[in-house]
From TrEMBL:
Keywords: Methyltransferase, RNA-binding, Transferase
Protein name, per record: Class I SAM-dependent RNA methyltransferase
Source species taxonomy: Bacteria, Pseudomonadati, Bacteroidota, Flavobacteriia, Flavobacteriales
THUMP domain residues: 46-157
Organism superkingdom: Bacteria
InterPro entries: RlmKL-like_Mtase (IPR000241), RlmKL-like_Mtase_CS (IPR053943), RlmL_1st (IPR054170), SAM-dependent_MTases_sf (IPR029063), THUMP_dom (IPR004114)
Single GO term (MF): RNA binding
Length: 387
């Protein structure tokens, strides 16, 4: 217990409860949901496991120090007094990310600059040398979060955002964030116990995330590195044990995962990404227009997709979403269809009643994750058969 410490997993809006459940299932302690974040307690090995295995986390932060700062000088002084030499060599490198919600501090870049100044001034005075700034591969990535006059300083154990899984070498014009894809899949109840279809798969992110959930494959297995690998307490043997243990929990998948896209270039990219993720045995990508497709499997089908929303792809939104509704209604009986939409007028054009509407954000755009239940035959008969 003495080696446990509190950590913060950052996430996207609306995924806090799903992330908390992921943490509980992994074995975290004292889990507390916040706004776009969940805090929890674990040890060093659990920090490695969280980075490797969490599907809906963007970053895992290790809090270091908190203090109040009512002006720039207090921020500078409080940062400068901390013993940074414990974590960073004078000829090392650092990067600082900052987020501010404050009337005192109104510019996050300026806060990052003042923090950097305070740290390098301490090193210069102590050693006559100072660490460099390296925004891409620093030895230490520091996170500063200011709420009003309250400042939290944390170490970023992840490095690059955890949505960068490492399998996506090719993207289409409007790729979906991997964490958003995984979160929507978990929110939709996808558990790998039936066939799955993404009928507008683009570069293949949703089918890949669906296969990793179905097979219980750690989502960040393909990443090249995590920030904690440069920390002074980096324990490679421990990490390898954590990875080995996670891989023992991988399970078989006995259904089909398919992705369609009408664009040959998207199909080529999706196949390449599926191959990079070592999931070619589980995912079939086909060049096909959803609007000319029919349900191919017997029994229940789980569908989830991210249709174009007119921001980066030029389409007649109302006509397009009307065709989505018609295709679902006419060609996909016995299906639960989920998709994310950011154009609220377009949703009305679907012509079906959504049984669920969940508020999410796709990048900066507010959207809704919608669920449509398509029954086999009539709804009434379906209910009688299931009674």
């Amino acid at each position: 217990m003495a080696n446990n410490f509190r950590m913060i997993a950052k996430t996207l809006y609306g995924f806090e409860t799903i992330l908390a459940k992921e943490l509980l299932d992994l074995g975290a302690m004292d889990i507390k949901e916040g706004n776009r974040m969940v805090s929890f307690v674990g040890d060093l090995g659990f920090m490695y496991k969280a980075n490797l295995c969490l599907r809906t986390a963007i970053k895992i932060l290790k809090p270091y120090e908190s203090f109040k700062a009512n002006n720039e000088q207090e921020l500078y002084d409080n940062i400068k007094r901390l013993p940074w030499e414990k974590f960073l060599a004078e000829d090392g490198s650092l990067a600082i990310d900052s987020a501010v919600h404050s009337e005192i501090f109104t510019h996050s870049q300026y806060v990052a600059l003042k923090t950097k100044d305070a740290i390098v001034d301490r090193f210069r005075e102590k050693y006559g040398k100072r660490p460099d700034v390296d925004l891409d591969f620093p030895d230490l990535r520091i996170n500063i979060h200011i709420e009003n006059n309250f400042c939290n300083v944390s170490f970023d154990s992840s490095g690059d955002s955890l949505h960068k899984r490492g399998y996506r070498s090719a993207t289409n014009i409007a790729p979906i964030n991997e964490v958003l894809a995984a979160g929507m899949l978990l929110m939709s109840g996808w558990d790998g116990q039936c066939d799955f279809l993404d009928p507008m798969c683009g570069s293949g992110t949703i089918p890949i995330e669906a296969a990793m959930i179905a097979c219980n494959i750690p989502p960040n297995l393909n990443r090249k590195e995590f920030a904690f690998e440069k920390w002074s307490d980096w324990d490679e043997d421990l990490y390898e044990k954590i990875e080995e243990s996670a891989l023992k929990k991988v399970r078989d998948f006995h259904y089909k995962i398919k992705g369609y896209d009408k664009a040959p270039s998207a199909v080529m990219k999706a196949k390449e990404n599926v191959k990079n993720a070592n999931l070619s045995d589980f995912i079939e990508i086909q060049q096909k227009s959803f609007f000319e497709s029919v349900k191919e499997n017997e029994g229940y089908l789980h569908m989830l997709f991210n249709p174009p929303y007119g921001e980066r792809l030029e389409i007649d939104i109302e006509e397009f979403y009307g065709k989505i509704g018609d295709t679902l209604k006419q060609s996909y009986p016995g299906t639960h269809a989920w998709f994310i939409a950011t154009n609220f007028d377009a949703i009305k054009s679907v012509g079906l009643r959504a049984s669920r509407k969940i508020k999410l954000f796709n990048g900066p755009l507010e959207g809704r994750l919608l669920k449509y239940v398509l029954y086999e035959g009539s709804k009434k008969r379906s209910k009688q058969e299931n009674a």
